[in-house]
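[agent] plan:
  1. take the single chain provided in the ticket
  2. run structure prediction with default settings
  3. attach structure tokens to the ticket
  4. add a short note for the reviewer (M.T.)
[agent] executing step 1
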Amino acid sequence: MELFRIAQPQWMYALLIIPVLTFFFVIARLVRKKALARFAQNEMLAILMPNASNSRPVVKFIILMIALASIIFGLARPQFGSKLKTEKREGIELLIALDVSNSMMAEDIQPNRLERAKRAISQLVDRLNNDKIGLIVFAGQAYTQLPITTDYPSAKLFLESVSTEIVPTQGTAIGAAIELGMRSFSPQFEGSKAMIIITDGENHEDDAIGAATTAAENGIVVHTIGMGLPQGGPIPVFRNGQKDYRTDKDGNVVVTKLDEPMLQQIAAAGKGIYVRANNAQIGLSTLFNEINKMETSEMESRVYSDYNDQFQYFIALGLFLIFIEFMILERKNKYLKNFKLFGK
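[agent] step 2 finished; step 3 output follows
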């Protein structure tokens, strides 16, 4: 069974020009008819214009419109599918949980922790092939930003919109992110599953180690990336276009520091590895190598069709009809006008 599709359907809008041209053609014919009626009666017109034809212009116009429609349809590239194939894809499911709390705006990692993490994730997406990826954002609560998918362009698009404003409650609920991640993997997928937690780990508010342990028991490997330098950095805030830094109730500048021991414990509980980011590298490349060692499984089988273009036939038909229209004269042929095939 062959499948049919239009490769460039936007060209089909050009067909709207046909009813417009038809409208103006009809108006022009009516104006011409009224003008001739004012000039002379029909009997006199037949004498004055013996070779004039009322039907030939109409036939020529119809042929021209069919030709135009055929060429437009050809430009839309009609295709018939002729090669049905089944493709088996093997990979893993990967979920990234990104901390979007205010402390991720610290600039100890340039340009800031959050922006650098987003760039690294984008580069990771570019390296994926058959794996599925999902994105969770969290601060005081965790939210699904992008469900598990193989649509990498959409993943990068959703990643661009990530900021500290998309989560209303501040904090660092790593445990909530892990629990949401466990629910976000495809239930029917029995292959390898991995989660990457990207955070500074500061001020965590729940049992992240317990959540990582539960994830590991369910076959989900939990890796962590620590965003921040040991000395930490202040949290910038902008007031009236001026850059300032967050202060505590006593007016002292708040310095956010990486909670490295906590992230190491979470990774150990999740049977993953911990990597600390710095200004030279984030650590996703190291984790990508670990992920590549994981056993891949068949993720989906999809049937698709290689489509063959058929536009050339419609273009050829349109050009042929234009040639026919050109050969048909608007006036009667003086040698054939009296010839009647079925007349006596």
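[agent] step 4 note for reviewer: The longest strand covers residues 78-91.
[agent] ticket updated
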